[in-house]
Amino acid sequence: MRLIKILMLIYFLIENFAIYGQTTITATANAEIVPLSITTEVSQLNFGKFTPIGGGGNIIITPQGSRVSNGTIILKESAVSPAIFDISDSQNTNFSVIFPKNTVYIYHQNGINAMSLTSWTVDLPTLGSSSEKKNIVKIGCTLNIGSIETNPIGMYSGTYSLTFFYN
Questions:
Q1: Nearest Cα to 63, choosing from 142, 157, 146?
Q2: Are the CB atoms for 118 and 61 separated by under 8 Å?
Q3: Angle at 28 between CA 25 and CA 32, to 5 degrees
Q4: Under 8 Å between Cβ of 32 and 41
Q5: Which conformational region is residue 71 in: left (phi greater than 0), alpha (psi within -120 to 50 degrees), or beta?
Q6: Which residues, at least 6 apart from 53, have a Cβ–Cβ distance to it below 8 Å?
Q7: Rounded to whole angstroms, how far apart are CA atoms 39 and 15?
Q8: Backbone angles phi, psi at 14, to 5 degrees
């Protein structure tokens, strides 16, 4: 009973005394959406020249520009390159890339035969080290090649979509 009386007294004191050490202020919040723009495809993804023998295989281009083959692919001396993009307006800002969700194909000049691109890799720039508002992003992937019957001699080409976004 005594505890109930003490609790009632505390409640009465709290309810009847005004607290004068408070104030309310209205503040402002701001936000600005800025573009992430790709100004230039500096270099196209290029697997170079090669000859498939037997059952084929694959060629891997790394973001750093190395080329290796697996399976029965003979690499020929030729220019190769990862895809290189110049990303502007991203100074000291982290961004990422989304690779194609579906298999990407490059097609023979006859429009029928194709090879697939898979296993995409990226080399994103280290941020905070450049005073310029642009960064170079390098993309590599794997080209999957069938036999010479499946993938006849000739030029193959195609397009693919990448999505760059701020983290």
A1: 142
A2: no
A3: 170
A4: no
A5: left
A6: 72, 73, 74, 148
A7: 65
A8: -70, -45
Whole-angstrom distance, CA of residue 158 vs CA of residue 8? 80
For residue 77, how many other CB atoms are within 10 A of its CB? 6
> Which amino acid is it at 58?
N
Helix (H), strand (E) at residue 142: strand 134-145
Q: Which residue has the tokens 């692919």?
A: 73
Lowest mean pLDDT among 47-51, 62-66, 135-139: 135-139
Q: What is the DSSP string of 66-108?
A: -EEEEEEEEE-S---B-EEEEEES-TT--EEEE--SSPEEEEE
Q: Is 121 exposed, middle or buried (0-12, 13-18, 19+ CB in 10 A)?
A: middle
Per-residue pLDDT band at 93 (split at 50, 70, 90): low
**99-123 pLDDT tens trace:** 999 999 999 999 999 999 999 999 8
Asked whether the CA dihedral 114, 58, 69, 61 is positive or negative, the reply is positive
**Is 46 within 8 Å of 80 (Cβ atoms)?**
yes
Cα 23–Cα 26–Cα 30 angle in degrees, nearest 5:
145
